[in-house]
Amino acid sequence: MEKKLVVANIGMKFGMCHVEGAMNYGAEIAAICDCNEENLRFAGERYGIPEEKWVTDYMDIVNNKDIDVVTVAIPDQQHVKVSCDLLRAGKHVLCEKPLALTREDIEEIIRVADESGSKFMVGQICRFTPSFEKTKELIESGTIGDIYFIESEYAHDYMKLCDDWRADPKRHGVIGGGCHAVDLIRWLAGDPVEVFAYGTHRLLPMVSYDDATIAIMKFDENTMGKVFVSTGCKRDYTMRTVIYGTKGTIICDNTSPEITLYEVDEEGVTKEPTKIPVEVNNHNAAKEFEVFADAIINNKPVVTDAREGAKTVEVCLSIVEAATTGKIVKPNYEF
Ligand SMILES: NC(=O)c1ccc[n+]([C@@H]2O[C@H](COP(=O)([O-])OP(=O)(O)OC[C@H]3O[C@@H](n4cnc5c(N)ncnc54)[C@H](O)[C@@H]3O)[C@@H](O)[C@H]2O)c1
After folding, report:
1. Interatomic CA distance for residues 94 and 102, integer angstroms
2. What is the CA(173)–ligand 1 centre distance, in A?
3. What pLDDT was estimated at residue 2?
4. How many C-alpha atoms does 70 have within 13 Å on its Cβ side?
5. Torsion, CA 296, CA 111, CA 304, CA 195, rounded to 10
6. Of 9, 12, 13, 238, which is best to mutate to test ligand 1, by the most ligand atoms within 8 angstroms of its C-beta?
7. Separation of CA 250 and ligand 1 centre (Å)
8. pLDDT of 106
9. CA end-to-end span of the chain, whole Å?
10. Residues of the chain with pLDDT under 70
11. How remote is the C-alpha of 198 from its chain's centroid?
C-alpha cells in the first residue's frame, strides 16, 4: 500500500481550504499552524484536528521530520522566506499565489527550489476552476480556431478585505489579485512579449497604489490581450474572460454556471451560441492538492512550478511599471 502523505498547513484563513483539499485527498494532517491563536483554534475545532497538532511557530513544522508536504497561505510578503525554510528542510511545498512580490525574491525562491530536489507548486488555483478548465479544453481542441484577442479581468471589491499587508505598495492590486487574470491569459494564450498600461486611484482610501489598472499586451504579430484589474470596484467578484478566435468566441467566468460558446457555420457566419453548463467552483483546492500529490508520488513535473509562478509575477510587475512610467515594457522571462 502507498504511504499516506503527511501534511502540515500554515495560515488558517484562506489556508483552511488547503486543509480541506488535503483531507479530501485522504492525507494525514500532522500539524496546522497560525501565529494567531484564535484563527488556529477556529480551524482546529472546525476540522476536528486534535490540539496537540496545533502550532503557532512554523519552525515547528520545518523541524518536524515526519512531515512530507506543507501548504503555505500567509501574507504574500512572507511566501518566499517561509517556503525557502521549508524547502531547505526537504519538504514539498504548495505556496499560495503570487509567488513573490519582487524580482529579488523570485530569484531566491527559484534558486532554493532548484537546489532542494523537492516539489514546489504555486497555487494558481484558477487553472483548476471548472469553467476555465473547460475553456482550455475547447481552445486546445481547435473549436474557436486561432486566438487573436484574449481579455480577462480581476474585479474584486477589497473595501473590507484590505488589511495592512494588502495595503503595502509592494502588494499592488495587479500583483496580489490581478495575478489570477494574468496567469489565466498566460495559460490560455501564452506569454505576452510587450505590455502597456494605465492606472487610476479612485476607490480604496487605505492604499497608495492604483486601485484600477488596464493593461494591453501583444503576444505575437497576430495575438493581442487585455487585462483589467479593479480592487475597489462596486460589483460582485468576477473574472470574466473572453477569448476571440478565428472560428469562434468563448465567454467564461469563475462565478458563472455556464460558458457561452460561439461557433461559425460552413460560410463562416456566427451561429446561435451554445451554453455549456459548468460547476461553479472558484477555489478548487481539492483538485489543486490532488494534482500536487500526484506530482510528488509519481515524480511528475509540477506545471505551476517556481518559474511558471515567476513568469506570471513578471508580467504583473511589467504592467505596474508600464502604468507608472508611461512606457511599453517587455517582460523578462529569463530566470
Ligand atoms: N488563491 C486564491 O484565490 C486566494 C484567495 C485568498 C487569499 N489567497 C492568498 O492566500 C494567502 C493568505 O491570504 P488570507 O486571505 O488567508 O490572509 P489573512 O490575512 O486573512 O490570513 C493570513 C493568516 O496567516 C496567519 N499568519 C501570518 N503570518 C504567519 C506566520 N508567519 N506563521 C503562521 N501564520 C501566519 C495570520 O494570523 C492569518 O490567520 C495570501 O498569499 C493570499 O494572496 C489566495
Report:
1. 19
2. 15
3. 65
4. 31
5. 180
6. 13
7. 33
8. 98
9. 39
10. 1-2
11. 23
